[in-house]
Amino acid sequence: MLRGYLRKYRTMVLASVVFFYLGCCLTINFTRIECANKTSSKKELETQVQSLSKVQYVVIILSSPNNDLHRDAVRTTWGNYVNNIFVENGEIIYKWNHNSMSEQSQRNVIKLLFVVGTLGLSGIKADKLRNEQKRNKDILILDNIEDTYKNLSLKVLNALSWISENLKEMKYVIKCDDDSFVRIDLIVKNLNAFAPNMNAPELNKFVTFKEQLPTYKGLYWGYFSGHAEVFLTGRWQEKGWFLCDKYLPYALGGGYVISRRIVDYIAQNMDLLSYYNAEDVSMGVWTASLNAINRVHDVRFDTEWKSRGCKDNMLIRHKQTSSDMFQMHKSLAQSDGHKLCGTEEINRKTYFYNWNVLPSACCKRN
Fold first, then answer.
1. ω before 359 within 30° of 0 (cis)?
2. How far apart, in whole angstroms, are the C-alpha atoms of residue 160 and residue 239?
3. Fewer C-beta neighbours within 10 Å, C or N terminus of the chain?
4. Contact by Cβ (8 Å): 191, 315
C-alpha cells in the first residue's frame, strides 16, 4: 500500500523537493545580493566622505525622491556656480565663469548635497535614486526617514548631524529647497569676506542686525520673520506648539545660512530638541537661546512663501520653476554674471527687520 501511495504521488513529492531546493537557492542568492548592496553602499558613503574632506561650504538642498527634474535643473544652472569660487595661492577667489582651474586650485571648496529620505520607498524608486546618486555623487540619502512634509525638520536634523560628524573643515551650511535659485558663488564670496560680522559698508543697505558685538560665536543669516501666526489647522498645523501665540523669530526656509558652531550645537543635542512641521520654524527655536550669535536679516534673500519679484542683487530666489532657473541662468551668462533678471520687477514690498522692538512689530513693509 505504501509503495502504491509513493508511486501515485511520486511526481508531487519530487516537485516539492525541487521547488524547496530552488527556494533555498534563491533565498541565499538574494541574501548575498542584499549584503553586497549594503557593503557597496557603505563603501560608496566612505568614498563620498573622503572626497569631501576639504569642503568649507556645504549647500543642503531639501528634495524628494520624485523631484529628479528639479535636481537636474539645479545641476544645470546655479549648481555650476561653485566653479566661480576657487583656491589660488591658499586664498579663496571669486571669478565669474572660472572654468580653467589647475589641480591645486580645484579643491572642493563648496559642495551641493540634495537631502532625500528613502524609508518606505518602493524598490524601483529607490534603485532609480541610487543610480542618480552614482552618476552625480551629490545626494545625501537618509534611509531612516520617510520623505514627507512632516519630516522636513528631521531631514535637516539628520543632515546637519551627518555634516558635523564627517566634514571637519566645514565652516558654513547654506540650506535651501530644490525650487530655490541660489547665487552660491556670491554667498560664499560674502561669507569669505565679511562673516561673521557682516558689517561692511557695502552690505549696510541690505542688512540689519540683532546686535553689534566685538566678537561673535556664530552666524544665522537670512530673511527673518518675527510676527508669523501659528498654524493651528490645515496642512501646516503645529499640534505641539506651546511657546507663544507667534512663531519665534526665524529665517525663512527658502534659503538661509548657519555657521559651524550652530551646526555642531544642533547635532550634539538633536535627541533633546523639539521640532515642528516647518523646518525653518524649528531652526528659529533651536537657535533662540544661543548667545552671541549674529542674526542678520538680508533683503537680498527672496525666500518668502511667494516671490517678491526679481532684483539683480538677489542672492536667493525661492518658489522658482525649472523654466525660471534656466531663464536666470541665461541672463547671467549673457551679462557675465551681473544681471540675474531679464527685467527687474517688484511684485511685493520688502521690509528691514527691526531688532529693537518686540517681534510683533518687527516687520513693517516699506
1. no
2. 25
3. N
4. no
Closest C-alpha among 206, 211, 361 to residue 295? 211
Chain segment 113-142, per-residue pLDDT in tens: 999 999 999 999 999 999 999 999 999 999
What would the pLDDT profile of 16-68 be if each residue is shown by its tens digit?
544 444 454 444 444 443 444 444 455 555 655 666 878 999 999 999 999 99
In order, the DSSP letters of 298-335 are: ETTEE-SSS--EE-TT-SEE-S--HHHHHHHHHHHHHT
Q: Does the domain formed by 55-361 have CATH 3.90.550?
A: yes
Q: Is the Cβ–Cβ distance between 147 and 122 less than 8 Å?
A: no
Cα gap 195→218, rounded to integer Å: 9
Give one word for 14, left, alpha or beta, with left for phi > 0 and alpha for psi -120 to 50.
alpha
Cβ-count burial 304-323 (b if 16+ within 10 Å, e if not):
beebbbbbeebbbbbbbebe
Q: Report the candidate in 307, 332, 333 with the shortest Cα–Cα distance to residue 321.
A: 307
Residue partners of 89: CB distance under 8 A and separation at least 6: none
> Strands 224-225, 250-251: parallel, antiparallel or unpaired by DSSP?
antiparallel
In this structure, what C-alpha cell is assigned to residue 319? 518658489
Q: How far apart are CA 203 and CA 310, in angstroms?
A: 19
Lookup: cell for 12: 508531487
CA distances from 179 to 70, 182, 218, 223 (A): 7, 10, 27, 17
What pairing do the DSSP bridges indicate for beta strands 172-177 and 139-142? unpaired
Measure the CA–CA gap between 52 and 49, rounded to whole angstroms: 5
Distance CA 114, CA 74 (A): 10
3-state helix, strand, coil in the chain (%, to 5): 40, 20, 40
Helix H or strand E segment including 261:
helix 260-268
pTM above 0.70, yes or no: yes
Q: Which amino acid is at 318?
A: H
CA 242 to chain CA centroid, nearest Å: 27
